[in-house]
């Protein structure tokens, strides 16, 4: 696998991990507004990951489908949410941390990738990634979960 496809698969991993966690959170959400938000965020992650997978396949490599670390992190977040007095707030806190990972991965691809094509692809999606992160960060802070 080339460094180019490895870089794209790294982005796919964080998106797929996040998508899965958003889907699970939507299924467990207590409030309709959060369920809708989580479903929309999952769809956004799936859409971007789908386009990146198409690019990886076009380059002759096998697209990734998430990471083991992401699955473990998701499991930990789900357990914390289920044990919390307010699972929606705990999910929001954990999902915002996933958004941090996504933003970091896209910024790294834009700023540090050796491949112009990877940088261009990451730049294309970076505004949406930044917007999603800001929305979850602001929601987390509005609910008093600053840590």
TrEMBL record:
<feature type="domain" description="DUF2383">
    <location>
        <begin position="5"/>
        <end position="111"/>
    </location>
</feature>
<dbReference type="InterPro" id="IPR012347">
    <property type="entry name" value="Ferritin-like"/>
</dbReference>
<dbReference type="InterPro" id="IPR011971">
    <property type="entry name" value="CHP02284"/>
</dbReference>
<dbReference type="Pfam" id="PF09537">
    <property type="entry name" value="DUF2383"/>
</dbReference>
<dbReference type="InterPro" id="IPR019052">
    <property type="entry name" value="DUF2383"/>
</dbReference>
<protein>
    <submittedName>
        <fullName>PA2169 family four-helix-bundle protein</fullName>
    </submittedName>
</protein>
